[in-house]
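ok so i was messing around last nite and threw this chain in just to see what happens. nothing serious, just curious
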Amino acid sequence: MKNWFIFFLFLVSYAYTTKAFAYPEMIRQNYVNCLACHESPSGGGLLTPYGRGLSAELLSTWGGANEAKPFYGAFDHPFLKNWFNVGGDLRAVQFHTKNSQGSEDKFIRMQTGIETSLKYMKVKFVSFFGKQEVDNMVRGKFLRFFLQYQAMDELTVRAGRFIPNFGINIAEHILATRRGLGFDEGTERNQVEAMWSGENWNTSVSFSKQVKSDENPKTEKAGNIQLNYSFLDSYRVGGDLWVGNLEGQGRQIVGAHALLGFTKKFYYLTEFDFQKDFEKKKGLFHFSKLGYEFFKGFHGIILEDYQKEDFKDSLTLANSFGAGLEWYPRPHFEFEGVWSKKRVAIQSDKYSDYAYLMMHYYF
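result:
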C-alpha cells in the first residue's frame, strides 16, 4: 500500500505539471542566453522566429525552417511579422510503474494552451491561455502573462505573472530544484524583474509575491538575484540568492549551477541549492543531467535528483536516478522516455520503478 501511495503522489505531481519548452541544453551549441530563442528573457514558453528556425536547423532530425513556423506558416504574413507571434502546446504522458504490489499504467493529458506575443516598438505583452485540469477539461484561464520593455539591447524590464528566474529553467519540473523549492510550472507569481544580458555576464533581479489560492492562503513575498558568467563559448556557471518572508517567517536559499557544453554533442547540467525554510529547517536540493546526442535530434540522457528538506530528519529524504531518450523527429514534435528508480523515505526505504513517455506537440 505504501508503494501505491507513492505512485499516486507521483501521478498527481505530473498531472499538474505543464512544462514550458525550455532547453538550456543549447549551451552545447554556444547559446548561453535564453532571449535569443524565447520571448521570455528567462527562457521557456513561446519561441521567437529565430528560435523556431533553430528548432529545425539544430534540434530536429528532419524538417526545414518553413515547417517550423507557427501553425506551419498560417500566420506568415508581412502585416503580422513585426508585431505578432503565436504558438501553443499539447502535451500528454503515459506512465508505467511496477513494484512488489504489482504494476499499473495511466495516460494523463498535461497541457493544452495558446501563447501569444504582441509587440509595439520596444514594448511587448506575452500571455499563455489555457489550463489543463485533471478531469481532462481545459479551463479558460491566463496562467502566465507579462508586459516587457526593452530598455537597451542588453536590458529588459518586465512585470506580470510568471515563474521566478531561479537556478536552471529545466524542462523536468518535477525534479528537486524546481518542484522541491516551489519553482515548478503552476507556481507563477506576481512580480517585477530586471535582467541584464551581456556578452559574458548575465544578471537578473526580481521582487515577487505568491498568488493567493486555496492551496496557498498565505503568500510569500520574496526578492531574488541571479548572476551568471559565460566563458569558452559553451560554458556557463552561476549563483542565486533568494530571500522570502511569509507573515514574519523567513526563507533563504543559496544556490549554484552550471551548464557545460563539452562538445556539440556532449553536455552536462547541474544545480545545488541550500535552503533554510520558514520553520528554520536546513536542507539540500540537487539535480544533474548528462546528455549525448547520438544523431541530430536524438539524445540519450542520465538524470539524478536529491532532496533532503531537513538535514536532521532522515524521513525528509527523496531521491531518484534513471536514464532515458529524447527525440525531436521534426519541428513541433518532442518525445521523452525515462525509466527511473525513486525513493521517498517517509513512505518506504525501498526504491520503486517508474517509467514514462512524454509526448509534446507545439504549434
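not much to say yet. The mean pLDDT is 89.
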